[in-house]
Write a structure and sequence with these properties.
The chain contains 12 helices and 5 strands. It is α/β, with parallel strands linked by helices and 265 residues long.
């Protein structure tokens, strides 16, 4: 199975600059198309001063420090699927709904990527699910952010906030090659590189600090306060006919929206 970021990557300045950065470090273009495409994606977020926000710069630096070949990406997906199953097996019960976000849902997963997941769990299982979250959020593999089945507005609002998601079948996470198939579908639907606006980067930097330890991140997610209230309102309105279209369009101005449900895989 071939893993690729675009069937025909746009040869724009971002792609060319990514190739230059690779060449400076002795990384050949041949066999490293996924790496070059991911670098081009990060570079596409440069502002008017040609600088990257800290989050994108750290991703760029990470990839250049530990580059990888195209042939390694599929194996990484398999590793992440195994890790996700380990996480799910620690829960009192599997989530009713499971969404993958982050680099997987954007079609830019690399060997250095982790796997971000959102799951809806029964209210009585929420505390135990956050225990698992706290143990895994700082790790290099899969992590599940749990939400209650009884807060659909908040759950929908969180997916709007992350911008991209792909719904997967929790019962198939133990199936060999399942996430490879899902990822192929994600790649086939990928149409653009730039994901976020500068304002979005600033706003998320205010409400979510990468400097928080695992317990601090748990508290941020478990006790969201005004942030959760705002997301719950947006998520609730997103399900209302006509108003929902306005909510989605507004969210898309901040972070590109892409929500897939490849149920026929």
């Amino acid at each position: 199975m071939v893993i690729q970021a675009f069937k025909t990557p746009p040869r724009d300045r971002h792609w060319q600059d990514a190739g230059r950065l690779m060449a400076e470090r002795g990384i050949a273009a041949q066999g490293h198309q996924c790496l070059q495409e991911n670098l081009a994606t990060y570079l596409s977020h440069r502002g008017g001063d040609d600088q990257l926000a800290p989050r994108w710069q750290s991703k760029l630096d990470r990839e250049l420090l530990t580059p990888y070949a195209d042939s390694q990406v599929g194996a990484r997906i398999d590793q992440l699927q195994t890790s996700l199953k380990t996480v799910l097996d620690q829960l009192p019960a599997y989530p009713r709904e499971l969404y993958l976000t982050g680099s997987f849902s954007r079609g830019r997963l690399g060997v250095n990527s982790d796997l971000d997941a959102y799951g809806t769990v029964q209210p009585q299982h929420l505390h135990a699910a956050f225990d698992v979250f706290e143990k895994t959020v700082a790790g290099p593999d899969a992590c599940l952010v749990p939400f209650s089945e009884e807060t659909p507005g908040l759950n929908r609002g969180n997916l709007l906030a992350v911008g991209a998601s792909v719904k997967v079948d929790p019962s198939r996470i133990g199936e060999s090659g399942y996430l490879r198939k899902v990822y192929q579908h994600v790649q086939s639907e990928r149409t653009q590189r730039k994901e976020t606006s500068a304002l979005y980067e600033w706003m998320t930097g205010q409400v979510w600090s990468e400097e928080l330890d695992a317990h601090g991140k748990r508290q941020e997610m478990e006790n969201g306060g005004l942030t959760h209230q705002a997301m719950a309102l947006a998520g609730t309105l997103a399900a209302v006919p006509l108003i929902g279209a306005v909510v989605h369009s507004t969210a898309d101005c901040f972070v590109s929206q892409s929500h897939l449900e490849p149920s026929r895989i």
